[in-house]
Amino acid sequence: MSDESSNEAPRTVRLDRELVRALAHPMRNRILGLLRVYGPQTATTLAGRLGVNTGATSYHLRQLAEAGLVIEDDSRGNARDRWWKAAHQGTEFDKAELLDQEPELALGFLHGVGQSYAENIFSFIDAVQTMPADWRDASVLSDYFFHLRADQLDAMMQEVLAVLEKYKTADLTAPLPEGAEQVTVQLQAFPRETR
């Protein structure tokens, strides 16, 4: 069944300059990520996860809703609690196009993305000591260095993305299969500054 016939939002939204503007604040990027991973939440539950006050999360949720990145979950809540959910499961964007159109905005957005990635890594490091041995052994925190041309790096990344696509979960908020955990795979590939 196609997205249109099921009345569901597309799984991925392509970011344009207006959507990047809405996500340029790191808190909004984090809120959207939490809604995608953990499913619908209230401003209060998000505030608890983020360690901020409810007023801040409410404000940022309204900004995300205005941009169409989050929507109210009408199936939950009551007159007192508004539940929010991500309108899309993922985002994609053309870095070159955004950097040409709005360089400062694009760099701010990319810095926020990088900050989120760094926070994910530090959370893993903080938890690794108490993880079950099989999860500790299966986890990877590593980097590799190559001498490549841009076209070779692009080809490598296409191959890696094809492998990741095989394991992609349709709905991150669905109940976990027995023995499964939510797993994040962060991927960065870029030329290093040479000296």
From TrEMBL:
The keyword Membrane does not apply. Residues 18-99 form the HTH arsR-type domain. Keywords: DNA-binding, Transcription, Transcription regulation. InterPro entries: ArsR-like_HTH, HTH_ArsR_DNA-bd_dom, Metal_resp_trans_reg, WH-like_DNA-bd_sf, WH_DNA-bd_sf. The keyword Transcription regulation applies. GO terms for molecular function: DNA binding. This is DNA-binding transcriptional ArsR family regulator. It comes from Kribbella aluminosa.
